[in-house]
Amino acid sequence: MTDQKRMLWANEQGLAPQAPLFFSRKHGPAGPRAISRVQAWTIVKAASERANVRVLALRGSRRGAIGEPAPAHPHVFRHVRVRQIVRQTRSLPLAQRQAGWARLQPAYLSIGDEEARELMRGVAD
Predict the structure, then answer these.
(1) Would you state the pLDDT for residue 102?
(2) Where are the domains positioned within the chain?
(3) How far is the C-alpha of 67 from the C-alpha of 59, rounded, in Å?
(4) pTM, full prediction
């Protein structure tokens, strides 16, 4: 969703220009209060569990070992967006800049088997 679409949606919902997009039921003196990092993580994790959405774990945890399916968490969306930018634009500097990283992590240069097959179909012999 673009910033413009997000602003239009917020206006349609009657949110003030500086109001948080994700807010708790509790209001502070200035109006709706933004949810915390922990609340966001809890919401995404619960939704991931209900929908049975899994991602491959990059680290071992009590949920399983590295490379095993694990529940999604909010930080995954940041990494998904960077991969999307790299795949659509083929611009590593753009992805790096959008993510705010000093250098692009090598993991974003890798591709899956299906993507490799698709790309190879377009390569002349």
Answers:
(1) 80
(2) 26-73, 75-125
(3) 8
(4) 0.48
